[in-house]
Amino acid sequence: MMIFVQVILGGGSFVLGWDVRYHLVWGTLTFIVLIVSTVLARRDFGVNSTLFKVALAVIVDFVVQGILGLFAFGSGVAVVVHLTNAFLLAVIVTYLISFADSADKASTTILSQTQTAPTGNLRG
Predict the structure, then answer these.
(1) Which string of DSSP letters, residue by residue, matches the chain?
(2) Which of 20, 49, 55, 59 could bridge 45 with an S-S bond, Cβ 3.0-4.6 Å?
(3) How far, in Å, CA of 21 to CA of 8, rounded?
(4) Which domain holds residue 62?
(5) Cα-Cα-Cα-Cα dihedral of 30, 3, 80, 57, to 10°?
(6) What does the pLDDT read at residue 113?
(7) Are 66 and 28 in contact (CB under 8 A)?
């Protein structure tokens, strides 16, 4: 959702003449949320988890996106590349969210199976 708002703010600043500072501030907030989410993914799932690795890839792409955004101030071509990379970033983030959701469901299923398993000897 934050990426979607970021794309709207960026497009609005380019097409509708909105103040670009909204786009920059929202992008900074989005990056902070991404960093916090990555730290939590590392803590909960470890450094070898796919979730953590995808989160790191998103951070790298987000930094590249920020650099492209700075170049976009002076070049129409850079705006197109910046926009194209935004869609790539959205796809990667969507994968990250879906993976986190499936991991959460899997851990909930395992936890509920552990809690419902009989303990001790059932022979009477």
Answers:
(1) -HHHHHHHHHHHHHHS---HHHHHHHHHHHHHHHHHHHHHHHHHH-TTSHHHHHHHHHHHHHHHHHHHHHHHTT-HHHHHHHHHHHHHHHHHHHHHHHHHHHHHHHHHHHHHHHHHS--S----
(2) 49
(3) 13
(4) 2-109
(5) 70
(6) 59
(7) no
Q: Which amino acid is at 78?
A: A
Rounded Cα–Cα distance for residues 61 and 67 (Å): 10
Total domains in the chain come to: 1
The pair of structure tokens assigned to 97 is: 């969210």
Question: Each residue of 29-58: pLDDT tens digit?
Answer: 999 999 999 999 899 888 888 888 888 888
